[in-house]
Design a protein that fits this description.
single chain, about 100 residues, alpha+beta, 5-stranded mixed sheet, 3 helices, 5 strands, about 20% helix, globular
Length: about 100
């Protein structure tokens, strides 16, 4: 596979996932081909197996309830997992943000 099809993507994780993965505030992962939520999450789980099942369900692959996905100040949590992420995320200029949602009651 050509290295030209691989892109370095920046990902910011919430504190509890950073602790679990033993990483700093931001990871850098390589994504092959089209940069989508699915390809980014696949690359995170491949590089950090301890995060499998923490961001999305093992079986359904749906986003976990108290996590949200953001890019370029837009909430992408309800977008198709196969929709291309913004070009600034795909080029590594802006991070893909995984944010812990806050619930009150």
């Amino acid at each position: 596979m050509s290295s030209k099809s691989s892109r370095a993507i920046r990902v910011a994780l919430p504190q509890h996932l950073r602790t679990l993965a033993h990483v700093g505030a931001e990871l850098q992962i390589e994504v092959e081909g089209l940069v989508t939520q699915r390809s980014v999450l696949d690359a995170i789980e491949a590089g950090y197996p301890m995060l499998r099942g923490t961001i999305r369900d093992h079986v359904t692959q749906q986003r976990r309830p108290f996590l949200r996905f953001f890019a370029c100040e837009e909430d992408l949590s309800h977008e198709s997992p196969d929709a291309p992420l913004p070009e600034s995320v795909a080029t590594g200029k802006e991070p893909f943000l995984i944010i812990g949602a806050i619930a009150g009651g």
